[in-house]
Write a structure and sequence with these properties.
Blueprint lengths: L1 H25 L5 E2 L1 H4 L1 E8 L6 H17 L6 E5 L3 E7 L4 H9 L4 E11 L30 E4 L6 E5 L4 E2 L3 E8 L6 E7 L1 H19 L8 E5 L2 E6 L22 E6 L2 H13 L6 E9 L2 H29 L1 H28 L2 E2 L1 H30 L4 H33 L3 H32 L2 H5 L5 H5 L4
Parallel strand pairs: 1-15
Antiparallel strand pairs: 2-4, 2-14, 3-4, 5-7, 5-8, 5-11, 6-7, 9-10, 10-13, 11-12
């Protein structure tokens, strides 16, 4: 009965290990490399002003992460660093300028009424006498100008300037924004859902603009959506008498907080939806440090580490084969199973959860390989102790492997507990070390239970492996023939 169970465990272990490895290799899935191995950008943003509320800083981190993810600029690692800093790491980013511009978009999103639209440059000499000079563009772009009249350029055409009223609404009122298309006309627009407070203010604001439209004020009836000192959109109120969609009535406005803003095409609609949904930051940030990291040093260190590790592992493999005979083959196979499972897990976590493997994480893996090798030594030396008490080899294997697993479980529990404590209390690279160490320790427990016990018990029942001249387990364990 036990023999059948051990065969089942052994086959199951091999299928999980090498089946999973084959699956990730076939799909091209591989572990994601961290900033020190892949290279990329490291940026530190610092909050301006007085001491920042930790909750506000966490909210800002969420918005920045959404903003970078939505544009597909590589999966970022965004975290709070200290009391007023945000650390952003972008492994493998190709377009540095685009990423920096994206990260630098830190001003609040605002909705303003357009006062006038003017060219950014004066007319050529002689064309118009006494033509007024274009207004000076407002330099401030943060929350400090929310209550002031400003002049900002158009996002698509910088030659067009907008003079704008103080902000009526800010981006906090937007709960959802999505680019949608009309199935009949194919026209693109942005659908917006607002909070209850924002819906009430929006209704009053659009009511005012609709009435200005009816008075012939086509420019002043426009609502400007401003982000970081740039007018992303300046849409007017549709006339209910000419619009197929109903339009906006004077005296009513847009009620309920659900509204749509027309966009030129799909790309413009999606960009505007992204601005509306993730454009507002609760605080103003400045880039206090920008660092372009080359992967050369990390790759060189990794190559040197792997070379040294493989050399050391090769010597250990030769030693265990000479010292433990057939049991040495169990170590070989067990470490292969361990490597296959760990590679599969790290690949899946990289693809599914965005986990990046750094040098510190690789250090955790190297430590875990040593722990796994120690598990075999503990098991085999336990078998020797059982043999010395006078038991037969089969009885020694049956009892010794059971007791050895209990010892391995306790040792791995200590290592796993240390990894958990490090992960929750430490920051930066130490967390990567702790995570890989914890994952590898859990894998070691599973391999010890399902693979190692089964392999040793089945080999003990094989004549060649138990009594053979060169590979015999009896010689390795000191059993008298």
């Amino acid at each position: 009965m036990k023999k059948k169970r051990y065969k089942l465990y052994l086959v199951m272990s091999l299928l999980v290990a090498f089946g999973g490895l084959a699956a990730v290799l076939a799909t091209g899935t591989a572990p994601r490399l961290g900033l020190d191995l892949e290279g990329g950008l490291s940026v530190i943003l610092t909050a301006e002003g007085e001491q920042v509320d930790p909750q506000v800083l966490e909210k800002t981190v969420e918005i920045i992460r959404q903003r970078i993810d939505a544009l597909g600029v590589a999966e970022p690692e965004v975290s709070v660093a200290g009391e007023e800093n945000i650390l952003i790491q972008l492994p493998g980013v190709e377009n540095d300028k685009e990423a920096l511009e994206l990260i630098g978009t830190t001003a609040q999103l605002t909705f303003r009424q357009v006062i006038e639209q003017v060219p950014a440059t004066p007319p050529p000499s002689g064309k118009k006498k006494n033509a007024p000079e274009p207004p000076e563009i407002t330099e401030e772009v943060g929350s400090e100008v929310n209550f002031k009249e400003v002049v900002y350029p158009d996002a698509e055409n910088p030659e067009i300037l907008y003079r704008l009223e103080p902000a009526v609404l800010t981006g906090e009122i937007v709960e959802r924004a999505e680019a949608v298309t009309d199935p009949q006309s194919g026209a693109w627009s942005v659908s917006i859902d607002m909070s209850d407070e924002g819906a009430e203010k929006w209704a009053k604001f659009t009511d005012k603009l609709a009435c200005l439209r009816d008075q012939g004020e086509q420019v002043k009836s426009q609502v400007a959506i401003v982000l970081d000192g740039v007018v992303e959109s300046a849409a007017g109120m549709q006339d209910p008498n000419t619009s197929a969609g109903g339009g906006v009535e004077c005296g009513v406005g847009i009620t309920g907080g659900d509204t749509q803003i027309d966009a030129g095409n799909q790309a413009e609609a999606r960009e505007l939806a992204l601005v509306l949904e993730t454009g507002a930051l609760p605080i103003t940030l400045v880039q206090s440090e920008v660092q372009k990291i080359s992967p050369t040093l990390g790759r060189d260190s990794l190559t040197a580490g792997i070379t040294a590790g493989l050399l050391g592992l090769g010597l250990v493999m030769i030693y265990v084969l000479l010292y433990y005979r057939a049991l040495g083959l169990v170590v070989w196979a067990g470490l292969s199973v361990f490597t296959a499972i760990l590679y599969t897990v790290m690949s899946l976590l990289g693809a599914g959860a965005g986990l990046s493997l750094s040098l510190a994480g690789i250090a955790g893996i190297i430590v875990s390989v040593g722990i796994t090798a120690d598990s075999y030594i503990v098991a085999f030396e336990r078998l020797k102790d059982e043999i010395r008490t006078g038991k037969s080899m089969r009885a020694a294997i049956d009892r010794g492997m059971s007791r050895a697993f209990n010892t391995i479980l306790v040792a791995d529990f200590v290592s796993g507990s240390a990894a958990v404590i490090l992960f929750f209390l430490a920051v930066g690279p130490v967390r990567g070390f702790a995570l890989t160490l914890g994952i590898a320790t859990l894998i070691d427990v599973l391999i010890a239970y399902f693979f190692t016990r089964s392999a040793v018990n089945l080999l003990g029942q094989t004549k060649l492996m138990s009594s053979g001249r060169f590979l015999g387990m009896k010689r390795a364990l000191g059993v008298e023939s």
